[in-house]
Specification:
The structure holds 2 protein chains of 2 kinds. By secondary structure, chain A is mostly helical. Helices cover 81% and strands 1% of the residues of chain A. Chain A has 12 helices and 2 strands; from the N terminus they run ββαααααααααααα. Chain A has a two-stranded antiparallel sheet with strand order 1-2. In chain A, α1 packs across α9, α1 packs antiparallel against α12 and α2 packs antiparallel against α5. The longest helix of chain A has 38 residues. The radius of gyration of chain A is 21 Å and the shape is globular. In chain B, 6% of the residues lie in helices and 44% in strands. The longest helix of chain B has 7 residues. The chains are: A mainly alpha, B mainly beta. The interface between A and B is large, with 57 and 38 residues.
């Protein structure tokens, strides 16, 4: 299918979008647990148990979708390389060739191993060690996506910088956008359960997430600039190509997300510190929850845009 | 050089993101050079691409003026460089047809010709 002169591969874009979103939610949930939920709720066993259970549900669901979509991605690629249908591509040995003879295939095997380690750690979740190993496996799972994209084929030595920037970009995006899901669930806990001193715990968690978000946004900006410098390369590359326009759309959506996050931090978060049950506090909490859900929707849009971008020629190779 | 252009980077300061963008390998240059004339039939043809290639899924065929294939053996791939040895094929227009898979899983293909003359 051709769209504005660019070849669009529908199924591949859908599968990639689902895969990025699911991986981000999986990693974001575990980063949220390690850096927001556990520190904020350390003193409250009941609250910690409820939130931990929510986070593990999110992580398990995310992991299942990540693995399913990842396998589908490998299969779709094999089908497009061999020109065969799904059954034929597996039986004819084409899938085996892609898995063993291409970097993408080898990286996919490594990523599946990360997913397996993470699944084991989520099962043995009582031990602190297994939680940290699980977090490490999740970080590996998302960062290794860099080795399936353009950064993997950029020639050295720029290629090493590109891989590093891309891996950090993926991790930061997952931490922030993926972390919004457990945040939205946490904000809803007060409505479902009556917990002691919940308001102050909630405020602490929101502040911690906000700080994590700031670090993530800063990382996204710096790594994004590096990637754009390598892939777009010039102002003409930005404004004269389909790739450039879609990239600008991504930046616009990202900017809207940052504006919402800033409103959350500067205006709404201080107000949820007001006396619990007061009108101002309830309004702020409701607004914060709605903004968070809006950010999640925008984050999904970003992943869809990235799903499209991945199938296009970067401007740097079209514009000199 | 586009990469050292600071003017290009200033608008890029407005950019916050890119990410999982992929590329296709384009032919950067070849030996013998695209469209050029060489005095004697070359022993091999070498192509340089803009991206790193996957050896298992990158192929090249070379035909001489009579339409006979003159590439001998499997294409050798090293990073972004692909080459194939040639059998003697006489004079005239040689056609090179290539199909490559870049490491980021995109396929591109193309062709070009060069002259072998007296």
């Amino acid at each position: 299918m051709t769209w504005f002169g660019a070849e669009i591969d529908g199924p591949m874009i859908v599968v990639r979008t689902i895969h990025f979103a699911a991986a981000a939610v999986t990693v974001g949930a575990l980063m949220f647990r390690a850096f927001v939920a556990e520190p904020a709720l350390r003193s409250q066993r009941e609250a910690r148990a409820i939130v931990d259970s929510q986070i593990r549900s999110v992580a398990w669901t995310g992991l299942a979708v990540t693995v399913a979509s990842g396998l589908t991605w490998v299969l779709l690629l094999t089908m497009s390389l061999s020109g065969e249908g799904p059954g034929e591509a597996v039986m004819s040995g084409a899938l085996r060739d892609v898995l063993n003879l291409t970097q993408f295939g080898l990286v996919s095997q490594v990523r599946l191993a990360f997913a397996a380690v993470l699944a084991i750690c989520l099962t043995l979740q009582r031990s602190a060690l297994s939680r940290w190993i699980g977090l490490g496996a999740a970080v590996g799972l998302i960062a290794s996506i860099a080795w399936t994209g353009h950064a993997a084929s950029t020639l050295p030595k720029l290629g090493y910088l590109h891989l590093a920037a891309d891996a950090l970009h993926l991790l930061a995006a997952a931490t922030w956008i993926g972390g919004l899901v457990p945040l939205a669930l946490l904000l809803n806990v007060g409505r479902k359960y009556h917990l002691l001193a919940w308001a102050s715990l909630e405020l602490d968690a929101v502040r911690r997430f906000s700080s994590l978000g700031i670090v993530s946004v800063a990382t996204l900006i710096v790594s994004g600039l590096i990637n754009a410098w390598i892939l777009v390369g010039s102002f003409r590359g930005l404004v004269d190509t389909v790739y450039g326009w879609i990239l600008m759309l991504k930046v616009i959506v990202f900017t809207i997300m940052v504006v919402l996050a800033t409103v959350n931090r500067l205006m709404l978060t201080p107000r949820i510190a007001l006396p619990p049950g007061s009108e101002a506090q309830c309004y702020a909490l409701g607004r914060l929850t709605r903004n968070t859900v809006t950010e999640i929707a925008l984050g999904l849009l970003v992943f869809a845009i990235v799903g499209v971008l991945g199938t296009l020629h970067p401007s740097a190779h079209l514009v000199r | 050089m586009r990469r050292s252009s600071l003017i290009g980077i200033i608008p890029l300061l407005l950019l916050f993101a890119t990410g999982e963008a992929s590329a296709h390998a384009f032919l950067d240059h070849a030996q013998p050079r695209v469209g050029n004339k060489v005095a004697a039939p070359p022993r091999e043809v070498t192509l340089w691409f803009t991206q790193k290639l996957e050896p298992a899924f990158s192929t090249i065929t070379v035909t001489n003026a009579a339409g006979e294939r003159v590439d001998a053996g499997k294409a050798r791939v090293n990073g972004n460089q692909m080459s194939v040895s040639l059998r003697p094929g006489g004079t005239g227009t040689y056609h090179v047809t290539w199909r490559v898979l870049s490491v980021d899983t995109h396929t591109t293909d193309g062709s070009f010709s060069f002259e072998v003359g007296q």
